[in-house]
Amino acid sequence: MTKIHILGYPRIGAQRELKFALEAYWANKITKQELSEVGSQLRQDNWKNQDQAGLTWVTVGDFAWYDHVLNTSLLVGNTPSRHAAIEDPLERMFAIARGVSSSCCAAGASDMTKWFNTNYHYIVPELSNATEFELQWTQLFDEIEEAQSLGYQVKPVLLGPLSYLYLAKSNDGVNPIDLLAKLAPVYRQIFEKLEALGIEWLQIDEPIASLELEQPWKEAFASFYSQSPATLKLLFTTYFEGIENNIEWIKSLLIDGLHLDLVSNPKQLDSIVEQLPEQWILSAGIINGRNVWKNNLNNSLQLLNHTYEKLKQRLWIGSSCSLLHSPVDLDQESQLDRDVRDTFSFAKQKLNELALLASGLQNIGDSRDQILKQSTALLALRSKRAAINPRVRERSAKLDQHSAQRPESYAKRHAIQQQALNLPLLPTTTIGSFPQTPDIRNARQQWKRGDLSQDGYQDQMEQHIKEVIAFQEEIGLDVLVHGEAERNDMVEYFAQHLQGLAITQYAWVQSYGSRCVKPAIVVGDIYRDKDLSVYWSRYAQSLSTKPVKGMLTGPITMLAWTFPRDDLAAKEVATQFALAISDEVEALQNAGIQIIQVDEPALRELLPLRRSKQDHYLNWAVTAFRLSVAQARSETQIHTHMCYSEFNEIIESIAALDADVITIEASRSKMDILNAFEDFNYPNSIGPGVYDIHSPSVPQANAMSELIEQASRYIPLERLWINPDCGLKTRAWPETKSALKHMVDAAISVRQQQLVTTN
Hints:
This protein folds into two domains: 4-385, TIM Barrel; 424-435 and 463-501 and 525-558 and 567-758, TIM Barrel (Alpha-Beta Barrel). The protein is 42% helix and 12% strand. The protein has 26 helices and 23 strands. The longest helix is centred in the C-terminal third of the chain and has 26 residues, at 733-758. The termini are far apart. Catalyzes the transfer of a methyl group from 5-methyltetrahydrofolate to homocysteine resulting in methionine formation.
């Protein structure tokens, strides 16, 4: 029988059980044992789903309390020295991820960044010349034994040593490759323990093998994979890109099988099969792990038929990547339009797609007829639900090179805006959101259920906005925000008010730790037929004489953080989002809003992994942003916010956005991210974050003052803004108030020092 498997399954639970358990544990509302029981139940439910669908193995090692890269760090004993004194392994994990501040110790969190071109985040491993590795954390082995005790056949998954080192951060300039000699023996120990547990196949993830690697990394792969375990077989797993450009050196490795992502790059299949060593198996990642559309199984069958005839049982069928990036269970969605719903497939349903496709390949029973019938019905449904809007298509077609340009240069705009806004040196602001309190969430739920009228809901949101404005004025912030009390999510809120998108009830996916997002689904042409945010911004501005930013989400982030349609090019979808946002920008400034922030935290997220494809993407992504703000008058100051953008790689494109002010996350890296600005004369204003909102720790004013002074080495003070790393939605009010007060104090302190120096 053809073997079928997945690369990983969502760990959060169908009802986000992991999120709520983690947050209850962090708040000391449940014990470690109770947290452990939630994790065990989630794993058992996931394994049961895979087993019942007929998968050859259940995948073990994909469960993490925070993220799988951090799991790997603990497994190989790579703990930052500042956290080493924390004896409890679980508490040490959370300290690395979230930071810790207590009477006994204080240690900042490790950096967090995006997992390749996804919206999943990982905690960046830290390396130095002093780093030593040691097999420590037993979670992987414990969970294998847990699954085996339940009678399951197990395929563990482990992040490979080369990808682990490549994704790490060097604290003292050490070359990560030079640490492979220390790390390799620990991986050999892991292999031995897996063999002792009776494991036949190990899925060893090496996603960097799809990148355009420099020669030393290729040689490092050859070094580590020059010897194979005694009995353990290695499935060398790649995803998010093709590997046809790297197969020449990959095929020389001592491995037993190769996994291809045929969703991101189906064209690689034939060339890889022709060069596949005859003893290897080939795992075909044909079911999309990153989107919600049903697979056209007939097309997949046609793609794989020739390969199956050649390889027979050496061909496995799998997901393109981990289903971590998919929602859990479509069966929960009772409120979607039936015709739309029947074109979707979530993680649980994708398991059944795999099983049916494998049966079709082997021509078992009437499986081929079922596949043809299902694919025909799917095409009919997609044709029926395709919502093409002629006005949107015509408007997009009329765009030219001048459509995405503002009328004045930044230098002229800056002078006009300074006169209009009269802001001080080092103006202070926040990124946009303030804590979403239980009162806010309860009111929203009551309103959705019909237990609270529209007027009643509006009154409560206005009261929260009033309190947020009053607090900001009290502590002396220079540019205020309305706090986004009315918004459930920075993307979903706008998706609910735009045409062309479907909103789900439970399509949650993990972003990081306990943070989950519920992407909308693009099902048709996108357009704005009413105001999106004008009422709330106008109300907030009426409460203060200081400028209050209008807050919008940019076109690339709307594209990246929704599930895009699969029948229209991403560039065109981004253009449709941009035109809709452009209409809202014009409405905001006409309502008297002088500063408008159009957030693009996902700009780098969609960057193709291969450098040869990046310029094309960056050109249309930058154009989409510029198009979204082209209606802004010179006196309207445009801000944008970005997360974890690794600016050194795309600094010219960020400058090309031509935002008047960009704000970026910088505090965890101690402003190291600003190294990108050392050799590049960034022309506009910038606000590097001076405190980490992802940690509950409250930084002191002097610590933030030091970061401001460090930032001033890269950015002239007259173009430097002071702000947190990101929005404050997930934080509690006590820490928010203290941290922002310290931030304002820090800005005032540096401002006064500058005045003394100048005089």
